Amino acid sequence: METENVRLGSGSTIDAAIGETPCKLDKIRDVIADTLHTTAVKLDEKAFAPDAQPGMARYAKKASDWLENSSERVREYDCAKTDIKIRDYVSQNPGRSLLMAGAAGLFVGILLRRR
């Protein structure tokens, strides 16, 4: 996995700041990755079960591979690095960040109001 050496406003780098900022979403990320992996394994087992339909095995194997790849990508995701990049972006572009947050809030409000 490649590391990026992006300068923050204070002159420090993302790699240095990651050690200082623990990510609170690591447990959630691991649960999601484990669930994807478990689902992939179960799907793979059912695809090659004796009572499985012969034509479905190919599609189930593709879905199982897709879920396994997704599990690996979720597990490799570094939320601390993303957090630092977002904070740096917000500090460099406060107006645009407020506009995007307002638009997202409006969109979520519209979606929730309809239900």
Report on this model:
The protein is mainly alpha-helical and 115 residues long. It has two domains: 24-77; 78-115, no CATH class. It contains five helices and no strands. Helix 2 (26-47) packs antiparallel against helix 3 (56-76) and helix 4 crosses helix 5 (94-113). The chain starts with 13 loop residues before the first helix and ends with a helix. Mean pLDDT is 80; it is low at 1-6, 8-12 and 14-18. This is DUF883 domain-containing protein. It comes from Pelotalea chapellei.
Main β sheet profile: none
Tally of domains = 2
Q: How many helices in DSSP terms?
A: 5
Order of helices and strands: HHHHH
Question: Which SSEs are present, and which pair or pack?
Answer:
Blueprint (H helix, E strand, L loop, with lengths): L13 H5 L7 H22 L8 H21 L2 H14 L1 H20 L2
Helix pairs in contact: 2-3, 4-5
Sum up the structure in keywords.
DUF883 domain-containing protein, disordered N terminus, 2 domains, elongated, 115 residues
Quick overview of this protein structure:
The chain is mostly helical and 115 residues long. The protein contains five helices and no strands.
